[in-house]
Write a structure and sequence with these properties.
single chain; about 190 residues; alpha/beta; 6 helices; elongated
């Protein structure tokens, strides 16, 4: 079993499970600008998902068929990743481009399918998927913040119409409104 790490520690971290050395070498060459964590066997790859370092993974690339004889599917690892880290994009790599079942399984879990051998533009595909993930994360955060702010504005309007509310609580509401405006401004700066 190997665990291979390459690339700048500040680069996007990509988890790869591939048992064919030729394909591993190809991943290393094509994805040289990424930090790669590569496993060539199922057990070590699965164990790493429970490792503290996995939380920094930004994308997973999984071989469909792992091992000799008894075929273990990269989908087994994909399901474990989805269970623990549903935000991580998954790429299923296969040499079986005409296999409808692989495409169907990938669609069910929201994974992308890429044919092997990978091409030089594969790095662009990976960048795009990581970028899409980042946009979804910001979009989700934006939605959560907007729901919070809308709820707090509703609460503020309900409380401010009640004349029996002490002045110190009204001052806290004004402070909350200032904080809301700062959050909205930062959110707009990000977007």
């Amino acid at each position: 079993p190997i665990q291979y790490t390459q690339g700048d520690a500040m680069a996007n971290k990509v988890y790869i499970v591939e048992d064919n050395q030729i394909n591993i070498d190809l991943f290393k060459a094509v994805l040289s600008e990424f930090e790669l964590v590569i496993f060539d066997n199922f057990d070590d790859a699965l164990s790493y998902i429970n490792n503290e370092g996995f939380k920094n993974i930004e994308l997973a690339i999984l071989d469909v068929n792992l091992g000799m004889g008894l075929k273990i599917s990269g989908f087994h690892i994909a399901y474990r990743i989805i269970k623990n880290y549903p935000q991580i994009p998954i790429v299923i790599c296969t040499a079986y481009g005409d296999d409808i079942k692989i495409k169907q399984k990938a669609d069910i879990i929201g994974a992308s399918v890429v044919l092997k051998p990978i091409k030089k533009n594969f790095a662009d595909t990976i960048k795009s998927l990581i970028s899409q993930k980042a946009k979804l994360s910001v979009s989700s955060l934006e939605q959560d913040l907007r729901e919070f702010i809308t709820g707090s504005q509703f609460l503020k309007s309900m409380i401010s119409s009640d004349t029996s509310i002490p002045v110190e609580y009204m001052n806290k509401i004004i402070k909350l409104e200032e904080t809301e405006n700062k959050i909205l401004q930062k959110l707009n700066d990000i977007l």
